[in-house]
Request: fold
Amino acid sequence: MGAYILRRLLLVIPTLLGILLINFALIQFVPGGPIEQIIAQMEGGGDVLGGITGSVDFENQGGNDSGYAGARGLPADFIEELEREFGFDKPPVQRFLEMVWNYMRFDFGESYFRSISVVDLVIEKLPVSISLGLWSTLIAYLISIPLGIRKAVKDGSPFDTWTSGAIIVGYAIPGFLFAILLIVLFAGGSYLRIFPLRGLTSDDWETLSLFGKIADYFWHITLPTIALTISSFATLTLLTKNSFLDEIRKQYVITARAKGVSESRVLYGHVFRNAMLIIIASFPAVFIGVFFTGALIIEVLFSLDGLGRLGYEAAVARDYPVVFGTLFIFGLIGLVVGIISDLMYVLVDPRIDFESRA
Reply:
C-alpha cells in the first residue's frame, strides 16, 4: 500500500502542472486583462467589455497605439509601468515558469486589487464555505442513509414509490430556484420573515452570549444549507438503496436468514458494513464537492462572502494571482482527497488491496 500511495503522490505533481499550464494558456487568449480593467475604470468606461467589442475607435484617438482598448488619454509610460507592476512586460513562458517556481514554495503572491495575499484571502473566506459544505454534507448523510436503507427494505412498496418521486422532484429543482423560493417564503420576500437574508452572523454577534452566538449562527445558516443540500439527497439516497439491495440479494444473506438470524441482525450485523463501503469511503470526495462547487449562486443570493463568490469575482476582475492561486490550492486538495478516499476504502474493507491490483 505504501508504494501505491507514493505513486499517487508523485502523480500529483504532473497533474497540477497540467492544470496550471492549460489554464495559463487559455488566459492568454481571453480579452480584458487586469490592465484593461484599470484603464476602463480610469477612463470612466466602467465595463471593459464595451471597449473590447469595438466601441473604441483607435484611428480617431490621436495615433494612440498602446494596444489596450480604452487607453485613449493615458500616457504610454503609465501603461508600461502597469505592465511592469503586473509582470506583463515578460514573455508568457517566463511568467509561467516563475509562477510554477513560486507555487512550488507555496508563494501565491498578492491580489492585484485587494492588497492582501492570496492565502490570507482564502483563509478569510473559509468560514462561510466550511459552514455550507460541512452542514450540507452531514445533513445529506444523516437523512439519505436511513432513507436509502428503508427504501431497500421496502423495495417496490408504496413507501418506496412515493419517496422516489419526491426525491426525483427535489433533484430536478435547481438549487438557486429553491433558494429563491425559500427567500420568498421565509426570509421576508413576500410572506414570512422568519430567517435573515444576509451574512453568516448578526451585526451584534460579538455582544451575544455563547448560547446566543450558536443560535444566531444556525439562524443565519439554515436557509443556505437547505438550498445547497436539496439536490444532493437523490444521488446519495439511491446509491444507498442500490448498495443495500445488491448485498441483500447475495448468498450469505440468504444463508443467514435460513439459519434463523433475526432480520435486524442480518441487516445491520452483516449487510450494513459491506453495503456502506462505497458510501463511507466516498465521504471525503462528497464533502469537498459540496465545499467547493455549487455554492456560488447560493452565496450571492444570501450575501455570503465565501470561496465561490471569491473565485467568481476574481475571474470577472481578471485577478490572476487569486484565480491561479485558488486553482492550485483546490486542485491540490482535490487530488489529496482522492488518495484519502482510497485509504478509506481500505480502512472500511481490508480485503481491498490497491497494491496487488496495480
